[in-house]
Specification:
It is a single chain. The protein is α/β, with parallel strands linked by helices. The chain folds into 3 domains: 202 residues, P-loop containing nucleotide triphosphate hydrolases (Rossmann fold), CATH 3.40.50; 45 residues, no CATH class; 210 residues, Nucleotidyltransferase, domain 5 (2-Layer Sandwich), CATH 3.30.420. Helix content is 30%, strand content 20%. A hairpin with a 3-residue loop joins strand 4 and strand 5. Helix 2 crosses helix 3 and helix 14 crosses helix 16. The chain is globular. The C terminus is likely disordered.
Length: 506
C-alpha cells in the first residue's frame, strides 16, 4: 500500500479524531486543518473496518457540499491533494463524482454530492453508506443532516459483518447565531419563535459531540474597547502547515465581520455581496413585539416553488404592510408543502379571506408530473394564482418601494421577528454576488442562495397584492384623501373599477 502519513497539529483536532460518537462536528477558522482532518478521518475509519470473509475492508462514504462549484473547487480538490489519482486510482468526474480506492485488502467508495443538483439530493436519500462527511456544514440545513443520519450504518451489509463504525462527521467555519449548529452545541438557546415540535429536533442527542478550535488570532483593544490590532494566537491549530504570515496577510482589507467569522471563529453574519435592499433598517422595519393578526382583513400569501419551497404571509392594515409569518422548506414536494400551508392558515389565520400568489413559472407542467403546482394547490383547497409578472426588476421594486414609505407617521413595512430567514435576507443574505473582477462590480440579478427563495415569495405576495401596479399597468397611484374623524376604513365599500387592466381579474 502507498505510504500515508498524517499527524493532527492541535489538541482539538486530536480529540475530534479520537472521538467515536455517531455525530461529530468541528468548527474553526479558515486554514485550521479541519477539512483535511475530515478527509483523513474518512480514510482512517475505512482502515479500521473489520475485514469480511475475503479479508477485504469494505466501506462507502458520501461527501456533501452545498453547491457543485464549491464541491469541485474546494472539497474534491482537498481530497485529491491527499489522495491523488496517480497513487490511489482514477477519480470519476461524471455525476455523481466518485473515487473508488481499491487495494489488496481495502475497498472504499467515496461519493461526492452537491445539494444544488436535484439528482444529487435524490441520490443522497437513496444511498446506503457507512458514513457521511458534510463539508462546510453552516451552508447545510438541519433536514439534510437528519437525512444523512438515516443513510449511515447501512454498508457493508450485516451479511458481511456490518460497519465497524458508522456516523456523520462535519466541519464548518463559524455559522450565524440562529443556525442549528450553535443551538445544538449549546452555545445559544433555542429561539422562542421555533415551534415546539421543531425545537425538539434541535436538542443535542447523547451520541453527538461538537468541537471548537481556538481562534487564529487575538485582538488588542484600545481605551474605547475597539480593536487596535490583531496578533497571531499561540494556541491556534495547524500552524505547522501554514506560513507565519498567512493570517496577517489574510485579514488585510477585510471587514471586522469577516475577520470575526473566518479568523476569530465567532458566530456571526458576513456581508460579502451587495445587499438587494439597502433601504432596509432593522431598527425601523423589524417589530419589537409579535405582530397580531388583524381580524377581518385580507390575508396575502406569496409562494416560491422548487426543491426549497417558501411562503410569506402578510396583511395590509391602514396602509401598512405587516409581514407576520414565513415557511421555509428543504427538499419538499408541492404536495407536502401544500399541507404545511393548510396547517399554518388553519392555526394562525383562520376565518380570514385568503389570496395566494405564486411564481408564474409554476403554471407549467413538470416533466415528471402532468399536474402543475397551481393545480396541486387548488386540489388541496388552496386557491392560488400566478403573480402578474415574473420580471425581476418589477418584483424588487414592489418591495423596495414600501421600505421608504410612511403611513400615519409609522413605517409602511413591518416584519415579525418570527421570520428569521426573511430578516437575514434583508440584512444582507439576499444580495448581488460580487464579480470576480477588479473593482466593486456585482451581478445585475440577486444571487440564488438560501435566502433567495423566501424573498422571491415575498415579491410574489407584493406584486399579487397590487404593489408596483403603476410599473406594470401604467396606472397612476391612488390619490390620497382627508377622512373624517369617525371614518372607519373597514366600513368603506369597495368601488367598481371602470377600466380593465392586468389587475382586474386578480
Amino acid at each position: 500500500m502507498t505510504e500515508f502519513k498524517y499527524k493532527p497539529d492541535g489538541e482539538v483536532l486530536k480529540n475530534f479524531m479520537k472521538d467515536s460518537n455517531f455525530f461529530r462536528g468541528i468548527r474553526g477558522p479558515v486554514g485550521s486543518g479541519k477539512s483535511v482532518a475530515c478527509c483523513v478521518e474518512v480514510f482512517r475509519r475505512a482502515l479500521e473496518q473489520k475485514p469480511n470473509k475475503d479479508g477485504v475492508r469494505k466501506s462507502r462514504w458520501a461527501v456533501i457540499r452545498n453547491t457543485n462549484p464549491q464541491l469541485r473547487t474546494t472539497t474534491i480538490k482537498t481530497w485529491l491533494d491527499w489522495f491523488p489519482e496517480d497513487q490511489w486510482g482514477r477519480f470519476h468526474w461524471s455525476v455523481p463524482y466518485t473515487h473508488h480506492i481499491k487495494t489488496s485488502n481495502l475497498d472504499i467508495e467515496v461519493i461526492f454530492l452537491a445539494l444544488d443538483r436535484p439528482e444529487d439530493v435524490k441520490k443522497l436519500l437513496s444511498l446506503e453508506v457507512t458514513g457521511v462527511w458534510v463539508n462546510e456544514a453552516r451552508e447545510i440545513p438541519k433536514s439534510i443532516i437528519d437525512a444523512c443520519t438515516m443513510r449511515c450504518g447501512r454498508f457493508p451489509s450485516m451479511r458481511e459483518g456490518g460497519p465497524t463504525w458508522s456516523g456523520v462527521i462535519c466541519d464548518t467555519n463559524a455559522p450565524e447565531e440562529d443556525h442549528w449548529w450553535p443551538i445544538m452545541s449549546g452555545e445559544v438557546p433555542i429561539p422562542d419563535h421555533i415551534p415546539r415540535e421543531q425545537a425538539k429536533m434541535l436538542v443535542k442527542p447523547d451520541n453527538w459531540n461538537f468541537f471548537v478550535q481556538p481562534s487564529a488570532m487575538v485582538e488588542t483593544l484600545d481605551d474605547k474597547g475597539e480593536v487596535n490590532e490583531y496578533q497571531d494566537n499561540v494556541k491556534a491549530e495547524n500552524k505547522l502547515n501554514m506560513l507565519d504570515t498567512y493570517y496577517s496577510n489574510l485579514i488585510r482589507g477585510k471587514t471586522k465581520s469577516w475577520i470575526d467569522v473566518y479568523v476569530m471563529n465567532r458566530l456571526g453574519t458576513i456581508q460579502e455581496g451587495k445587499p438587494v435592499y439597502p433601504q432596509f433598517v432593522s431598527e425601523t422595519h423589524i417589530a419589537e413585539e409579535e405582530i397580531p393578526i388583524a381580524a377581518g382583513v385580507q390575508l396575502y400569501i406569496g409562494i416560491d416553488f422548487g426543491l426549497t419551497p417558501a411562503a410569506v404571509f402578510g396583511q395590509k392594515v391602514r396602509g401598512r404592510w405587516l409581514i407576520q409569518a414565513e415557511i421555509v422548506a428543504i427538499d419538499m414536494g408541492i404536495v407536502r408543502f401544500a399541507e404545511l400551508l393548510r396547517q399554518e392558515i388553519a392555526t394562525r389565520f383562520h376565518n380570514l379571506d385568503v389570496k395566494i400568489y405564486g411564481d408564474p413559472a409554476g403554471d407549467f407542467r413538470a416533466q415528471t408530473d402532468e399536474s402543475t403546482p397551481f393545480q396541486i394547490l387548488r386540489g388541496a383547497g388552496l386557491k392560488a394564482i400566478p403573480a402578474p409578472s415574473n420580471s425581476v426588476d418589477l418584483r424588487l421594486e414592489s418591495v423596495s418601494s414600501q421600505l421608504t414609505k410612511m403611513a400615519d407617521g409609522k413605517p409602511a413595512f413591518l416584519i415579525d421577528r418570527r421570520c428569521p430567514s426573511l430578516i437575514k435576507g434583508f440584512q444582507g443574505g439576499y444580495c448581488y454576488r460580487r464579480m470576480q473582477v477588479s473593482g466593486e462590480r456585482f451581478d445585475d440579478k440577486p444571487e440564488k442562495n438560501m435566502y433567495s427563495h423566501i424573498h422571491d415569495a415575498l415579491q410574489y405576495l407584493m406584486l399579487g397584492a397590487g404593489e408596483g401596479r403603476q410599473l406594470i399597468s401604467g396606472q397612476k397611484p391612488l390619490s390620497s384623501f382627508i377622512a373624517r374623524r369617525d371614518f372607519n376604513v373597514f366600513d368603506k365599500k369597495p368601488s367598481v373599477r371602470k377600466k380593465s387592466s392586468i389587475w382586474a381579474n386578480l
